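User: ok so my PI wants both of these folded by tonight, can you help

Assistant: No problem, let's get them done. Here's the first:
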Amino acid sequence: MLNSKELFARRAQRTRSALRRKSTGMVRLSVFRSSKNIYAQLIDDDNGVTLVAASSLEKELRDALKTGADKAAAEAVGKLVAERALEKGLNKVVFDRGGYRFHGRVKALADSAREAGLKF
């Protein structure tokens, strides 16, 4: 019997392998969700480099948000990562939800990134 961490890692690996088959060299928007904050980064898997990152821990967001662990924080992080990506000329990405279900904070981040101009 696998424990919850092993099941999570298995789901994340399944998601990433499916993205690798379909992405054909596109940048990956990866989401990490902790109990207190949310993080997003654009990763170039070909070179193994993080191109853009944003989180609810950043000073400009920390002052404006009530907490880093709600949908409002996720929306702000999604908008911020999309703005930074567009500044670097990245507008097409694949969304990597990791082992998380696509609802709640993860969905809010994805929706706000789409509204800000990212295509996935």
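One down. Here's the second:
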Amino acid sequence: MNRKYLKKITIGILLFPFLASIVAGEGFTVGKVGEWVTVKYDGKLVTNYVVGDSNKPYLWPLIGPGGKAMTRAYPMKKVNGERHDHPHHRSIWFGHQNIGGFDTWHEPSTILERKGSEEQKNKKLAGLGSTVHRAFSKLDGNHDRATIVAVNDYVDSDGKMLLADERTLVFRMGKDRLVLDFDIVFTAEHGDCRIGDMKDSGFSVRIPTSMDVDSKKGGHILNSEGQTDKGAWGKRATWVSYTGPVDGKIMGVAIMNHPKSFRHPTPWHVRTYGLFTANPFGTRAIAREKDGGFTLDAGNSFTLRHRVIFHAGDTNSAKIADAWKAYAID
């Protein structure tokens, strides 16, 4: 860069101070690209909020510290070395196997690729519902954070509305970490709604294949109660951390359950092959407690609150236990 050009930039910053923040780093920006919303930090992609591409909204990709992809790419993209299973595991999402009798967890591709007669598959396909994006009520990005607020309707196979949600996503960047607060308020806007006790339900992240325990590359699960790997499945905990290598560097995904979240501390449907789900609905199906199915009466609401930390290093070096304590009083 020549001196004359540098002089022009310096004069421009002095005359127009807002240019300094652009040169130094603009922080978060949030913008729409068609139906999708894109979140960037200092001009680099953090994630897309994807709608209209599945039977539920989801985030993908999720780019964490050091430019590392912190969720699995499949089924949005096939990457060599990844597991190509469970095509309904879309990076970061919420789904439930029984809302008003319909399944928003699975997708048609899931059912069609599994074993069973045509009659059995058609029955399951008829039982699929959708989480339909209604509107974005807030999109905002600034130096410190990005915010997305979206409203959705859960509908049956005929399009009948069963339940509504408003989800608030707040992204913040820290040293060697990206923090995502993901709150969902469910409201029975369309009348009483029965919500079942199911194993496959909840707020989920599908971690990179290289991080999962079964890949035997150093992946490890640890929860707040000290339970590890397979021993963490179905257990209640305030947080769970999943760590392992991504492109040769140890990285981690920690999900925290806020004390004001529905049925805190939540049971965890966390699998050694890479599924990572906070499931307060499956109290019988995974926690081996009493049936947790319930009817949400018309006009009533409940809330799920989670914080996800995508970080460099292992659970201890990232001080996840301390991070949960800070989150719990937030």
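The helical segments are 3-15, 18-24, 108-113, 118-126, 320-328. Residues 65-328 form one domain. Good luck tonight!
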